[in-house]
Amino acid sequence: MNARLLTPLVGLLGLASFPAACQTPVDQAVVPAASATADASPSGSPRASTITAGQMAPDTVLASWNGGQITFADLQKTLGVDLTQMEVEYLTKRFTTESQGVDQLLIQKLIGAEAAKRGVSTQDLIKAEVTDKTAAPTDAEIQQMYAAMSRQLRGAPLDQVRDAVSQQVSQRKQTEVFTTWVGALKTAAGAKTSVPFPDMPRFDVSIDDDPMMGAKDAPVTIIQFAEYQCPYCGKANATVKKLLDDYDGKVRMVFRDFPLSFHPNAIPAALAANCADKQGKYWQIHDLMMQNQRSLEEKDLTAYATQVGLDLDQWNTCRKDPATRTEVDDDMAAGKALGITGTPAFFINGIMLSGALPYTMFAQIIDKELEQE
């Protein structure tokens, strides 16, 4: 198997990295206070203390002197959530790397077997099934990609960047053809992967009094910290809805606000949603804003409020009420106490996932939690 030929195609599938999150710039990043404790958090917010997996016992002595000692529990209190965040990042990255590696090896084996079956080289097989079956970019597709890449191209005229834009279109179309073909190979071979999800640290996270979707007595609770202007939150919204459908009665989702400072419409949108909640229309306006993340100006918010049937006078009064802003700020403080610096961030029965991650990662954790019921 020619790995050099296959690797770019595998990369096109997104196996090299999972989707990212809307991340707070480094100079604005929230660093949990060294003295963060359960008592330091706002009322109803999650405690900064955590219960972690695979660590030494809390009473393990790390340093001692005549008349005193420092235990692992003391170290945890001093560092806040930093140690747990490091463990989460490492375990998540290791799992994704292992999962991607297994999938890439599986694809190589399946393509190699198919090439041997047909009596051709892998290069010829990939050319026949992917390259030759990828249609050339149309002018309409190039125009659409050019519009999508406008920020990256910094206003360069299309005639100057047509080749680069056309290449992007070709790569996207090649990805679709390759994905479909590989999926068919996996199905025909009855292929399965089963990389076990690691035992993860658990954060103690409060649901507060925030909006909830799903069965109130569901054994699995997903607490999401997100905002309305982050595109990754919009992408993750579809994943969460699918989880709620697939695990009906077994999963509930709580939405907590975490508007990022560099998204100017994030706080107004959060206020709009919280005030819609006062009239029992939270999820209706929530979905509208998630579906229209580039249209969150004042006129847009009013249009959404009208569309879902809100009493606009009550809604506008609520948005101006300082208590509504305090509600959003309390969610932000709760997220910061957990070390969150980007959106979306999820806690599945306390197990943290960051970013718009694949459905399968959520499902593995949920399945494991349900097995323990």
Q: How would you concisely characterize the structure shown here?
A:
Helices cover 53% and strands 11% of the residues. It is of the alpha+beta class and 373 residues long.
Describe the 3D structure.
The protein has 373 residues and is an alpha+beta fold. It folds into 2 domains: 3-20 and 89-189, no CATH class; 202-371, Glutaredoxin. It is 53% helix and 11% strand. The protein has helices at residues 3-12, 72-79, 82-118, 122-131, 139-148, 150-153, 158-189, 231-246, 266-277, 282-291, 298-307, 312-320, 322-337, 359-371, and strands at 22-23, 50-51, 61-65, 68-71, 202-203, 212-214, 220-226, 251-257, 342-343, 345-348, 351-354. The strands form 4 sheets. Strands 6-8-7-10-11 form a 5-stranded mixed β-sheet. Helix 3 (82-118) crosses helix 4 (122-131) and helix 3 (82-118) crosses helix 7. The chain is globular. Mean pLDDT is 87; it is low at 1-5, 11-17 and 26-53.
SSE map:
Blueprint: H1 3-12, E1 22-23, E2 50-51, E3 61-65, E4 68-71, H2 72-79, H3 82-118, H4 122-131, H5 139-148, H6 150-153, H7 158-189, E5 202-203, E6 212-214, E7 220-226, H8 231-246, E8 251-257, H9 266-277, H10 282-291, H11 298-307, H12 312-320, H13 322-337, E9 342-343, E10 345-348, E11 351-354, H14 359-371
Parallel strand pairs: 7-8
Antiparallel strand pairs: 1-9, 2-5, 3-4, 6-8, 7-10, 10-11
List keywords for this structure.
alpha+beta, Glutaredoxin, 11% strand, globular, 373 residues, 11 strands
